[in-house]
Amino acid sequence: MAGAIVVINPNSTAAVTRGIDRACEPLRMPGAPPIECVTLAEGPPGIQTQRDVDGVVAPLLRLVTELDARAAAFVIACFSDPGLHSAREATRKPVLGIMECGILTALTLGQRFGVIAILSGSIPRHLRAISAMGVAGRLANERAVGLPVVELADEAKTAHRMTEVGKALAADGANAIVMGCAGMAQYRDRVEQAAGVPVVEPTQAAVAMAIGRVRLGW
Asked: Three-class SS of residue 74?
């Protein structure tokens, strides 16, 4: 089977890319496309504002074009899905965004879903996208941990906040929770245990869908 699932971290923080790569490990299996995780060197340390989202689109599209020959599919590993629709115009390969895939997966796990955001300023941007998807009526709530992307790797600081927000979302009525940043992957099991509901790591959701698309030729 030719080509890899190319997972692009649109921020420039290598630690986030390493976390994404570890999160993809359960999806590496014989007969499936290889999974390659890459960093967009031109990206900001974290994508936290609409300006950040808009600013990475052009370099992201250049990277998609550069990698197209060796890719079977692309995954954009940022919860704002920057450049998703433009990238779909730039290649004939499947392009999946982790926000879209994470939410769609959550909708198969429960009637109402919650989202853990990094910062409160991210929430309006996410709500616009959720409304555009037509699923706002199934959103229980979105809550922020109040930490920028570059601090999510600080386990002592982050784990407690992640689990507390997860429990609050379950109390809000979420039957499933979506982690609203690719940098949160290492905390999925702890949040799921604390909240008592399924927790979707969105890069895993998107890569799983990409594997299915490639294997089935969709």
From this structure: strand
For the chain, what is the domain count? 2
Query: Both 77 and 123 in a single domain?
Result: no
- Spacing of C-alpha 151 from chain mean position: 17
Closest CA to 69 of 90, 51, 96, 50: 90
How sure is the predictor about 86, in pLDDT bands with cuts at 50, 70 and 90? very high
Buried b (16+ CB within 10 A) or exposed e, 57-89: beebbebbeebeeebbbbbbbbbbbbbbeebbe
Do 197 and 207 reside in the same domain of the chain? no
Confidence band of 151 (pLDDT split at 50, 70, 90): confident
| Its pTM surpasses 0.90 | yes
Domain, as residue range, for 121? 100-201
- Do 170 and 207 reside in the same domain of the chain? no
Q: What are φ and ψ of residue 95, in 5° steps?
A: -125, 125
pLDDT in tens, 6-58: 999 999 989 889 999 999 999 999 989 999 999 999 999 888 889 999 999 99
Q: How high is the pLDDT of residue 1?
A: 44
Nearest one of 60, 184, 78, 88 to 125, comparing CA atoms: 78
